[in-house]
Design goal:
It is built from twelve helices and twelve strands. Helix content is 42%, strand content 19%. Helix 9 links the parallel strand 8 and strand 9. It folds into two domains: 204 residues, inorganic pyrophosphatase (n-terminal core), CATH 3.90.1640; 118 residues, Diaminopimelate Epimerase, Chain A, domain 1 (Roll), CATH 3.10.310. The strands form two sheets. Strands 3-2-1-4-5-6 form a six-stranded parallel sheet. The protein is α/β, with parallel strands linked by helices and 331 residues long. Helix 8 packs across helix 9. The structure holds manganese (II) ion (MN).
């Protein structure tokens, strides 16, 4: 499946210098899929310049990398942070198809062609310089890393051990330790595991130590939560200044079917949403679609997890969001 599309991308990039990047505050999947994709292309195009640059790493990515570097002290990440590369012909953007989430470039003057490889809902934005026909966007994959693994599988290219650790980590992290995975996810993992890979070591690498500020944030989110009941479903709404994703996840763990956490920022606001699987299956709720349909904000995501960013009236956007969720739940 999609072999020809992957080959088209490969062909297109031949002879070009390019940059691989991902969304801001890059998570493990964005970070690792970028690294792995460069490794793949280096096999074919050893003489082309291939850069990997991110605007900023997320806290979780940083802490994972500390653990990883202890296990593989000689591993050279060879990445740049926050620096635009000059001599490039193309940009490959991983793990998002929303330019608003890419902070490395000013999107208003992005005059270099670019292509998306992503597993979020296709927003079909038709950006002027997007090489639309080369986009590889599969919202039925649980991670971008899986999309990248298939490049290696097409050409039976051996993946070195450290990269196996990285890719398995990314797939586990993004699939919520298989909660959002499918048979294909397990097949990919099984291809990545070999005798030199210890899955228990990988689980250790992925362990996050929650610091006290995160614990306080989660407790505050609980103190502030408002409950809306719609038939048999519970929607929880809270607000926080940081750790919104972990607070939203917490709310769904303690009993809310949908969690909404608002954060006011200097330049606007952000709303993080999560929905449990059961409510999605029974009602067809798709948070990614809902947030992409709200006016005057930019948003995207998956069925069960989506984020939106806005500038002006957070109250109005929140009401709009709740109305849309209600409509889905009542129908
Ligand atoms: Mn991802």
């Amino acid at each position: 499946m999609n072999t020809s599309k992957r080959d088209e991308i490969l062909k297109y990039l031949k002879g070009k210098n390019f940059l691989i990047t991902s969304h801001d505050l890059v998570d493990l999947d964005g970070f690792i899929s970028s690294l792995a994709l460069r490794l793949f292309f280096k096999n074919f195009y050893p003489n082309q310049k291939i850069y990997v640059t991110f605007s900023e790493l997320s806290k979780q990515t940083k802490s994972y990398l500390e653990n990883f570097s202890r296990k593989f002290p000689d591993f050279d990440f060879d990445i740049q942070i926050g620096k635009e590369s000059l001599d490039i012909d193309v940009i490959v953007i991983l793990d998002t198809n929303n330019l608003d989430q890419v902070k490395l470039f000013d999107k208003s003057n992005l005059d270099i062609p670019f292509v998306f490889l992503d597993h979020h809902l296709n927003l079909q934005k038709n950006y002027p310089n997007n090489l639309l026909s080369l986009n590889l966007i599969h919202d039925n994959y649980s991670s971008t890393s899986e999309i990248v693994v298939e490049f290696f599988e097409d050409h039976r290219i051996y993946i070195p051990i450290p990269y196996r650790y990285l890719l398995i980590s990314a797939i586990l992290a993004d699939s919520g330790f298989l909660k959002h995975g499918n048979n294909r996810t397990i097949k990919h993992l099984s291809n990545l595991v070999n005798d030199e890979v210890e899955i228990q070591d990988i689980l250790l690498l992925l362990e996050k130590d929650r610091d006290i500020s995160e614990k306080i944030a989660q407790i505050k989110a609980l103190q502030r939560v408002k409950i809306i009941r719609i038939n048999e479903w519970l929607v929880g709404i809270s607000h926080l200044s940081s750790f919104t994703a972990s607070a939203a996840a917490l709310l769904t763990r303690i009993g809310f079917d949908v969690a909404i956490v608002i954060t006011e920022e200097k330049a606007g606001f952000r709303i993080t949403t999560r929905a449990k699987k059961q409510i999605r299956l029974k009602t067809g709720l798709h948070l990614g679609k809902i947030v992409s349909e709200i006016d005057d904000v930019s948003g995207g995501g998956h069925e069960g997890a989506a984020t939106l960013n806005g500038r002006n009236d957070s109250e109005k956007t929140l009401n709009h969001l709740i109305d849309k969720i209600k409509k889905t739940l009542i129908n």
